[in-house]
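Students often ask why inverse folding is considered easier than folding. One informal answer: many sequences map to the same fold, so there is more than one right answer. In these notes we will look at a single instance of the problem. The structure comes first.
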């Protein structure tokens, strides 16, 4: 098997590292030999001083042994270290010489035990070579020295004259014991060196690869530079033309900068524009829808020709359609800006379906279509979701189904999914028998301002925003919207939303027939009497509204409900009604002149936010209900923060407005009574 380049390089690096270690250790021993030579002479002079022979004296034999034998032991290995450093021969000669030094020092000290530790120190130093063979050579020399001197010269090694031929076994054991640990340490160290060599080899290969790539890039850059030089020469020939182009580009840059600034200003003004657009359109829509509703509920309407009733209904229907378009534009703006929000509260899915069916039944009856609901299995009585947004999704899906269906009808299939799983969902499948969709048309769904039929002669209207808004809302509620359709047969849109935990929630199976009886449409020829008739008897209402048409409409609705209505045109006049001196800075009257303040928030001179804030600062106890045509998400909190107690939108919901006023009027009566 061919050896990989990485392994080959690793072995080369390891061999180089070991060779460097050999040479470095050789130098250490070269210095050590010289030191041991001088140390041995000193030891010989200290332990074996001169001996007096009468008037003369002579140097002890140990001194000459240290000088001569030490020199012999030192010269040969030092010469090899200088001539052949790092070789195996040098290592083994160093091992023999070092252990010979141990034997010489033991001899010079008369076999003292302290000198025997020189053997262990020498083995430890020889372990620096990381070569187990060197340790074997050194151990063999020591063993041979102990055996021979133990037999023939025990005084030299053990400091005793008796025969010590078997004592070498004790010393041999300690040498073997030390060698075991040294060999283990050397083995571990060699493994680490091998791993380090492998990592370095890998890095070198990567470095070589990078260098090759850099070299290739350098070559390419050279070619590119040559090409750039050629192009530069060509460009130099057209310097005048480029100068003109530069001036034109600079002019375009200035225009682009101005356009960018304008776009940024337009983006900053987008929210304000949408709010103002909503206010400006909703304000007249209040009058249009309000007066249309009054006409339809007028008792004399039954005596009018059917065409007049139908004309009023047409005005009302188109006004509601325009209001839906406005809401869709505001919602898609929130989707694009990431400001669309949902809430999670306890709500009843059966109640929401009931409300949707009741609301859409009139449209189904107008087209002579059936509208039914089918409950598939047990349904939780409550779920944790956003009832307003869920109702909006279902109304959009059912409304689309009715719009694109001319025969047959629409069914809503309600089902609980994943009941026993951690994330259960409610499924609402809206199926129709309408025109259906082709695969190409299906792909264009869920896109802003897009419809399945994009031809100029399409027969169905709409902004194309409802589905993308509904899909976004479904996803925010923990689900999705999917579609299945067959062209010419019908379409099924399935919306799913998360239910939240169902622990402890009761499950029930609604009866289809009973539910359909609740949805039975009321006869269109007999409009109901005005709801809330005389509910506001003796309630004093201050209406702050600058629009004359809305003044007349709201005043008429409230007076018909029994209220006593006073109208002012701005917030300043509203505040002045409550002060003792008729100014905005004066103290409040002891007895409030009104029970409820209905405050429009957009008025000249002083708007409703300022007026509500002034009344709140004066500790006004009369409830203030905000009335605004703004429909942005934060408008309610803005009104409540300004000092209002409640919030109502334009176009007004007549019954809802009467109920709101009645609720706050009933709350304020005990407070007023307690202060009299």
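Output (designed amino acids):
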């Amino acid at each position: 098997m061919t050896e990989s380049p990485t392994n080959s390089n690793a072995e080369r690096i390891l061999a180089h590292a070991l060779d460097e270690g050999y040479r470095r250790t050789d130098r250490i021993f070269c210095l050590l030999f010289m030191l041991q030579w001088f140390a041995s002479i000193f030891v010989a002079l200290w332990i074996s001083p001169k001996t007096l022979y009468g008037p003369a004296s002579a140097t002890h034999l140990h001194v000459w042994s240290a000088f001569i034998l030490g020199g012999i032991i030192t010269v040969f290995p030092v010469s090899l270290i200088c001539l052949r450093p790092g070789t195996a021969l040098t290592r083994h000669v160093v091992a023999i010489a070092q252990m010979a030094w141990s034997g010489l020092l033991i001899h010079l000290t008369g076999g003292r035990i302290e000198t025997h530790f020189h053997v262990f120190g020498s083995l430890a130093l020889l372990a620096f070579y990381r070569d187990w063979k060197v340790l074997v050579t050194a151990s063999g020399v020591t063993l041979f020295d102990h055996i021979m001197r133990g037999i023939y010269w025990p005084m030299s090694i053990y400091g005793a004259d008796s025969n010590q031929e078997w004592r070498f076994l004790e010393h041999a054991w300690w040498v073997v014991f030390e060698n075991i640990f040294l060999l283990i340490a050397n083995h571990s160290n060699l493994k680490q060196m091998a791993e380090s060599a492998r990592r370095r080899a890998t890095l070198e290969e990567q470095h070589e690869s990078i260098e090759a790539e850099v070299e290739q890039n350098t070559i390419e850059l050279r070619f590119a530079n040559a090409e750039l030089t050629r192009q530069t020469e060509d460009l130099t020939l057209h310097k005048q033309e480029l100068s003109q182009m530069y001036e034109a580009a600079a002019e375009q840059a200035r225009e682009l900068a101005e356009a960018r600034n304008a776009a940024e200003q337009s983006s900053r003004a987008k929210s304000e524009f949408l709010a103002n657009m909503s206010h400006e359109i909703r304000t007249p829509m209040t009058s249009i829808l309000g007066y249309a509703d009054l006409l339809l509920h007028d008792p004399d309407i039954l005596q009018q020709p059917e065409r007049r009733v139908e004309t009023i209904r047409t005005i009302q229907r188109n006004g509601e359609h325009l209001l839906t378009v406005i809401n869709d534009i505001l919602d898609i703006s929130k989707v694009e800006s990431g400001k669309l929000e949902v809430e999670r509260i306890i709500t009843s899915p059966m109640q929401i379906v009931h409300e949707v069916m009741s609301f859409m039944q009139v449209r189904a009856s107008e087209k002579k279509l059936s509208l039914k609901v089918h409950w598939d299995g047990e349904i939780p009585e409550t779920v944790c979701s956003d009832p307003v947004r869920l109702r909006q999704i279902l109304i959009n899906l059912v409304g689309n189904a009715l719009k694109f269906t001319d025969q047959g009808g629409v069914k809503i299939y309600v089902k609980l999914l994943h009941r026993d799983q951690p994330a259960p969902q409610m499924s609402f499948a809206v199926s129709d028998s309408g025109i259906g969709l082709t695969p190409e048309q299906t792909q264009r769904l869920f896109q802003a301002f897009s419809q399945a039929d994009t031809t100029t002669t399409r027969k169905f209207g709409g902004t194309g925003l409802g589905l993308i808004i509904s899909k976004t809302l479904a996803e925010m509620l923990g689900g999705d919207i999917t579609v299945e359709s067959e062209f010419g047969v019908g379409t099924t849109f399935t919306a799913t939303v998360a239910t939240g935990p169902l622990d402890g929630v009761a499950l029930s199976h609604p009866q289809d027939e009973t539910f359909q009886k609740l949805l039975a449409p009321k006869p269109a020829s007999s409009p109901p009497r005005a709801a809330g008739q005389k509910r506001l008897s003796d309630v004093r209402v201050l209406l702050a509204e600058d629009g004359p048409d809305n003044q007349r409409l709201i005043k008429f609705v409230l007076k018909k409900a029994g209220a006593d209505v006073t109208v002012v045109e701005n917030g300043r006049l509203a505040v002045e009604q409550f002060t003792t001196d008729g100014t905005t800075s004066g103290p409040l009257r002891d007895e409030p002149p009104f029970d409820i303040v209905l405050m429009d928030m957009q008025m000249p001179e002083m708007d409703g936010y300022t007026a509500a804030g002034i009344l709140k600062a004066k500790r006004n106890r009369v409830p203030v209900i905000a009335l605004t045509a703004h429909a942005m998400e934060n408008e309610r909190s803005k009104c409540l923060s300004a000092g209002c107690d409640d919030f109502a939108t334009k176009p007004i919901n007549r019954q809802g407005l009467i109920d709101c006023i009645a609720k706050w009027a009933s709350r304020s009566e005990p407070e007023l009574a307690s202060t009299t």
